[in-house]
């Protein structure tokens, strides 16, 4: 195995990458290799699918299979080798169907179908050993000796950004929003990667295309979420337990949460959010369920302690799952792209979760005093007070905005983001996005002229809100977004964050502070180039970064 797709990659060797008996996330070599092979297989589907689509014979089901398959390979999503073996077999069937559609469409137009090579010709070996032999040829470092580390790094940048795009697009498709233009672009970009490109300039240009595609996908996801559940509104979320039986829902998928809320209605079971599910409370159609009583715990990396303590079952709907302790392995369930060997996987019917909740004690008493945190400052809520925000800036009451977005994690370097938030001056506003807000969202930041100093824009899935707000403020002030009194600090962990970073770079947003470490797949040459072309910065000393940010105005 070799994997360097996330921030927690092993950095003890000469070059970053998990290559031992297990990845730092707990991924085994078998799972890692099968994931590489699945990526190879979906590239092969995309080679035919992109050509078929040009001929008017697009296959949207195949595109959705690609999105889902790519999502399963994200960090901390699916660890079940048998699941990958079945996805690989399914991939061959999908590829054959798309190939036939392409060849028929070509012949119908009097064209000779192209004879494709590379991943398009792949077929799975009949057994696991054979598949693992195939995987050894197609890992992310394939061709390293010939093309060198910079090209490998740029291919990885495109691929990992695309993985994030596919995950976000999958979230939108489950809510019924499909855009064939998005499918076409995903297929095009995967097909491009299938050809093992070697030109660094072209690869960087495609990476920015991944970023632009991600903007479209995030807009689609925003429309899917708000169209289904309404626009988030500022909402106080209880963070202390309520007496009664309980289910905990983690991950990002609002549709799964909605289905569970419907299926638990009238049972007397209380539902709690965890991790990235916290912003769900802001959506009117979800908040309408009175048994969605609060949030329990913090960010994903705390789950082993928190899940063990929670007196009910847990449902994981998307990233980020960590190896479940034996103490709760019998009462954690996965759904959608998520999986862990031996953990029960459910599809739409959550009765086993409800039965598990009924069999458990739940919380014996309601914890007093009640504590709460406020969420729900998505684009509509913030833009509805744009006039007040603009006035506050013009009158000097608000001097600066700090957008602290991205993922939390256990490494000490992430204290930067905590320190940045806590030392930001009193006349600044902090916007949060993603799960790293848990580092400081129980702190009372106060308010400025009625505007709370801490505004949570939502999950990392809600990046479109943040971009919309930034662009609207730039318009109000008649300036470029880079001239706003705004500092972006992005805490990355996995491939959704890579997609978001590429979107910001594609929009021309400069001076983003990225941390706690730069991606291991970016070589020193690539870092130098990106720093030079996009003004990307690493996180430094929070006090100095604040001083620089304030001095820049
Ligand atoms: Fe966090 Fe995990 Fe949203 Fe990430 S739960 S870490 S980029 O997957 O998804 O912010
Ligand atoms: Fe290592 Fe991250 Fe890959 Fe897991 S996903 S094997 S931690 S680089």
TrEMBL record:
Record bears the keyword Glycoprotein = no
Cofactor(s) needed for function: hybrid [4Fe-2O-2S] cluster; [4Fe-4S] cluster
Cofactor comment text: Binds 1 hybrid [4Fe-2O-2S] cluster.
Please list the residues that bind hybrid [4Fe-2O-2S] cluster: 252, 276, 320, 407, 435, 460, 494, 496
Q: Which Gene3D superfamilies match?
A: 1.20.1270.20, 3.40.50.2030
Which residues does the record give as [4Fe-4S] cluster binding sites?
3, 6, 18, 25
- What is the role of the protein in this entry? Catalyzes the reduction of hydroxylamine to form NH(3) and H(2)O.
Q: What is this protein called?
A: Hydroxylamine reductase
Query: What is the name of the gene encoding this protein?
Result: hcp
